[in-house]
Automatic annotation (TrEMBL):
Residues 219-228 have a biased composition (Basic and acidic residues). DNA-dependent RNA polymerase catalyzes the transcription of DNA into RNA using the four ribonucleoside triphosphates as substrates. Specific peripheric component of RNA polymerase III which synthesizes small RNAs, such as 5S rRNA and tRNAs. This is DNA-directed RNA polymerase III subunit RPC6. Residues 202-211 have a biased composition (Polar residues). Residues 201-237 are annotated as: Disordered. GO terms for cellular component: cytoplasm; nucleoplasm; RNA polymerase III complex. It is found in: Nucleus. Belongs to the eukaryotic RPC34/RPC39 RNA polymerase subunit family.
Amino acid sequence: MAAKLEEDSSELYERCTNAALNSPEGRAKIFGQDELLKMGVVDTAQALLELLQGLMDAQLVRLMQMDGKICYALRKKDDAAKIVTLNDDERMVYNQIENSGTNGTWTKTIKQRTNIHQTTVTKAMKTLESKKLVKPVKSIKNPAQKIYMLHHLSPNEDVTGGPWFSDGELDVELIAITAEAVIHFIAQNSWKTVYIKREPTPETNNISADGTTKKRKRNDAGDIEGAHPKSRRSGGYETQISYPAGWRHYPTLSAIHHFIIEANFLKEGGNLAESDLQNLLDVLIFDERIERIGNGYRTCKGVYGPTEAMKNISQGRACVDPFP
């Protein structure tokens, strides 16, 4: 009987794990009793409760309450094996941190909710950190204080400030480098580059004060709008001309976002939402580096890179907020 109960408990845990991994929520998925019964491991609610009790005793499942209903969440097997070794105080502290999710919680809040002495909370926290069950995270709202969350979780944007922040501070260098990459990507599909051959012009003579004749040469293409700064030649110059009206190949927000993610440009590029990238594009529009054309973007004529301010930031020579 005990062997059958253990076998069914293991089967239920595996089915729950597969269902969680195949869901949008992943391991954070919450299960209700009806959903667990539909998995077909047991037929009755009473039998299901027996299996769940065994899994909770092994710390593989935790009991929760949402909207007044009892529900259940999974724990990883390696985490469960560590939780089993905790004493009562350590487990109470762990449960408070676990319940805080990706928001994390303060040690002061843990102390208030558990009625455990601060010294005991601090000691428990050290144990949980050493077992890699929890981790401290710096919050942008209170940089001087640490909050704690489960070791395997990533903090939400309310805590970190989003992908443009690093260790609780705005990463202006990352923003500048990303802006430069975005501009170069957009520039590839913004304009047609053509070579304009300079027609020879007659030289005109100037008479100097001493009566000698001086030849005046025509200026180079340095002041011609759209001329590439690295592509001027003595016999002509390269310039940019617009694509025909209705051109549909200007990079869109989604295309630029895909480029950033696929290029592994950001350390945690998967956390960069299109809305985050939109903020950067809006700044580049304001700085007159790019402009919106229909649903896409192109560089402003004559733009081949970031502003001098952005260059200075990327080279560590300035520290300003690009998102004022």
